[in-house]
């Protein structure tokens, strides 16, 4: 009973930051005025007087009330950038695309990952996934994920270990906005009940929207990235449980030396078919560009709460190799 309020408050905080991130990026895309300039109250010509009949004088606001809001908006909202900062942002965007760490980049990929998940004190799983990204016309992307799953549950020795193909997934995406300092990708994700065993998949067709954003942080020379995804079942085996699943990911992507990168991320998930029960995991990724467009990474993670929710775990570790290539 004590986990639900905590999950909702943490999830609301993460979701709020991501919504501000998306709003602030779209605001800059529409040519929003610099917040520092819009907050100036002094007329352009100080010698001109404002007629008293125009409006009643406003109550003065103390600087202590304005300053916290201004500081928060400066850090998250649209930020003026120098030509040098824009040049650095553009350089790092190319590096992130080459390394495969920017989810808004339209770039090709062949990737193989394998992760071990400790699910409960008696159950574990190994998930291996082949991912192929096909870019088109610099703004469109088609992604295909082919997962292979092995599960073991010591509490059910009669079932033994099950292994085989899990649910095939396809993502179609369009990069709606792209500048060196901000990018927005909008897409749709579909999964198909291709699992070779009932326990290895949902047994349902699912579909849902996906959004990815990436904002350059000049002070950190990193990217603040947000990912939102929702899945709902639209058909399949009527005897299987429906799917209604929402996830939010917030991460900071940084680059070190010439070939290294790190990602620190938090993933918040909600299962609406379980009365909105939520979970959260924290993960850290360290990767290196090996040669050319080949790269490898390792990503350990730990469950914070809600470890029995779909997509959560007690702890896990993932390793992967990828080859990136340019658009067609």
Describe it.
There is one protein chain. It contains 4 helices and 13 strands. It folds into 2 domains: 3-81, no CATH class; 86-325, Porin (Beta Barrel), CATH 2.40.160. With 328 residues, it is an alpha+beta fold. It is 19% helix and 48% strand. A 12-stranded antiparallel beta barrel has the order 1-2-3-5-6-7-8-9-10-11-12-13. The relative contact order is 0.15.
SSE layout and pairing:
Layout: H1 3-29, H2 35-38, H3 63-76, H4 83-99, E1 108-118, E2 123-136, E3 140-153, E4 162-165, E5 168-178, E6 182-192, E7 204-217, E8 222-236, E9 244-256, E10 260-271, E11 277-291, E12 294-305, E13 315-325
Antiparallel strand pairs: 1-2, 1-13, 2-3, 3-4, 3-5, 5-6, 6-7, 7-8, 8-9, 9-10, 10-11, 11-12, 12-13
CATH topology of the largest domain: Porin
Portion of residues within helices:
10-25%
Low-confidence stretches: 1-12, 23-56
Under the CATH scheme, the architecture of the largest domain is Beta Barrel
* Main sheet: strands, sense, barrel: 12 strands, antiparallel, barrel
Distance between the termini: 52 Å
Strand content: over 45%
The gist of it:
The protein has 328 residues and is of the alpha+beta class.
Q: What attributes does this structure have?
A:
328 residues; alpha+beta; Porin; twelve-stranded antiparallel beta barrel
């Amino acid at each position: 009973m004590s986990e639900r309020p905590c999950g909702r408050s943490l999830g609301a905080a993460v979701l709020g930051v991501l919504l501000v991130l998306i709003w602030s990026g779209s605001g800059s895309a529409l040519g929003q005025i610099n917040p520092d300039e819009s907050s100036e109250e002094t007329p352009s010509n100080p010698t001109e007087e404002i007629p008293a009949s125009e409006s009643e004088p406003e109550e003065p606001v103390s600087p202590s009330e304005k300053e916290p809001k201004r500081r928060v908006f400066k850090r998250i909202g649209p930020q003026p950038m120098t030509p040098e900062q824009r040049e650095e942002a553009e350089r790092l965007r190319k590096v992130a695309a080459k390394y495969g760490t920017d989810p808004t980049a339209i770039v090709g990929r062949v990737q193989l990952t394998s992760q071990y998940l400790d699910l409960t004190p008696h159950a574990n799983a190994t998930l291996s996934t082949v991912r192929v990204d096909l870019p088109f016309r610099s703004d469109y992307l088609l992604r295909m994920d082919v997962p292979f799953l092995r599960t073991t549950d010591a509490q059910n020795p009669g079932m033994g270990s099950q292994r085989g193909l899990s649910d095939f997934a396809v993502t179609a995406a369009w990069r709606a906005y792209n500048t060196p300092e901000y990018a927005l990708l909008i897409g749709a994700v579909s999964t198909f009940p291709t699992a070779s065993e009932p326990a290895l998949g949902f047994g349902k067709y699912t579909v849902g929207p996906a959004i990815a954003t990436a904002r350059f942080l000049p002070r950190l020379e990193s990217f603040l990235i947000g990912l939102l995804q929702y899945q709902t079942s639209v058909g399949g085996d009527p005897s299987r449980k429906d799917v209604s699943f929402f996830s939010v990911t917030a991460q900071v992507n940084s680059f070190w030396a010439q070939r290294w990168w790190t990602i620190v991320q938090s993933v918040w998930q909600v299962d609406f078919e379980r009365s909105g029960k939520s979970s959260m995991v924290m993960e850290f990724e360290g990767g290196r560009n090996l040669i050319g467009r080949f790269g490898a990474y390792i990503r350990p993670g730990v469950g914070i709460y809600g470890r029995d929710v779909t997509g959560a775990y007690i702890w896990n570790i993932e390793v992967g190799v990828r080859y990136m290539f340019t658009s067609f």
